């Protein structure tokens, strides 16, 4: 990053693409380390795993801040093509970067602090309720700063980069209700209501049964599901570790450009 700054100061037309690509590779590695540390903590909420996750989060935050700073430097130079090469457009790169506005930076830092505190006390309903209301208020301010009427609208475009509409969400959700939920209810009814003993099944057996319902929901979802199976991007074993997390999760693996 320092080398890119130096080169741009000497010559605003200098080709810094190879150096910036290296920066983004390091960012991907640090992001992946944080994701895996969070996964370890979700599976086993030990102090060691918690400390590792917090350390990885600190590294991730510092790296994101440095990358954001150099994005603005490149954006203000004659080398915007570098951002277009990586992000598709220079404007998208600026959206990706942390804002230069000091007030927004403070709000984002506050949002991160409240999110972490909320995760720590989520089992305490009274404490969690107070933090949740405070978190909502901060997120409302963030969305308004970026010109959105709600945090969900802001998050859809600026955090998750979702490219689907409210109507497509409703259509997809209805397909889940029609095809996935019956499989779930049938399984629960057979296992618990009727007292039918569990039949030994491998991961592949379970995934093959679920594939039938998923195929009815969406061709695109089935394509993604098959990709997940082909590349072993899942672990559906029941963990024997007691932890405060939920029973299912999906995590991004940026270095692999995929999800787990």
List the helices and strands and how they pair.
Blueprint: H1 2-10, H2 17-43, H3 47-75, H4 80-87, H5 90-96, H6 102-121, H7 125-145, H8 151-158, H9 166-193, H10 203-217, H11 219-230, E1 252-253, E2 258-259
Antiparallel strand pairs: 1-2
What is the rounded Rg? 22 Å
Q: How large is the share of residues in beta strands?
A: under 5%
User: What is the terminal-to-terminal distance?
Assistant: 30 Å
Q: How does the overall form come out from the CA principal axes?
A: globular
Helix content: over 70%
Class by helix and strand content? mainly alpha
* Uncertain ranges: none
- Average pLDDT number: 80
Main pleated sheet: 2 strands, antiparallel
Q: Count the strands?
A: 2
What would you note in describing this structure?
By secondary structure, the chain is mainly alpha-helical. The protein is 71% helix and 2% strand. It has eleven helices and two strands. It has helices at residues 2-10, 17-43, 47-75, 80-87, 90-96, 102-121, 125-145, 151-158, 166-193, 203-217, 219-230, and strands at residues 252-253, 258-259. Strands 1-2 form a two-stranded antiparallel ribbon. Helix 3 runs antiparallel to helix 5 and helix 9 (166-193) packs across helix 10 (203-217). The model has no long low-confidence stretch (mean pLDDT 80).
């Amino acid at each position: 990053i320092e080398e890119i700054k130096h080169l741009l100061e000497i010559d605003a037309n200098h080709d810094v693409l190879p150096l910036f690509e290296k920066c983004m590779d390091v960012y991907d590695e640090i992001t992946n380390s944080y994701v895996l540390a969070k996964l370890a903590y979700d599976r086993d909420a030990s102090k060691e795993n918690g400390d590792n996750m917090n350390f990885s989060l600190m590294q991730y935050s510092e790296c994101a801040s440095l990358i954001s700073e150099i994005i603005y430097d490149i954006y203000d130079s004659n080398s915007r093509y570098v951002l277009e090469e990586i992000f598709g457009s220079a404007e998208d790169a600026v959206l990706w970067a942390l804002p230069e506005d000091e007030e927004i930076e403070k709000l984002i830092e506050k949002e991160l602090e409240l999110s972490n505190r909320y995760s720590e006390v989520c089992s305490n309903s009274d404490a969690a309720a107070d933090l949740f209301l405070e978190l909502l208020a901060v997120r409302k301010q963030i969305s308004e700063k970026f010109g959105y009427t709600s945090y969900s609208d802001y998050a859809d475009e600026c955090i998750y980069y979702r490219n689907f509409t409210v109507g497509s969400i409703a259509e997809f959700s209805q397909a889940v209700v029609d095809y996935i939920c019956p499989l779930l209810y049938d399984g629960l009814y057979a296992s618990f209501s009727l007292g039918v003993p569990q039949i030994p099944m491998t991961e592949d057996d379970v995934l093959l049964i679920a594939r039938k319902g998923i195929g009815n929901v969406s061709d695109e979802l089935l394509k993604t599901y098959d990709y997940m199976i082909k590349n072993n991007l899942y672990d559906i074993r029941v963990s024997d570790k007691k932890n405060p997390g939920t029973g299912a999760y999906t995590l991004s693996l940026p270095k692999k450009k995929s999800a787990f």
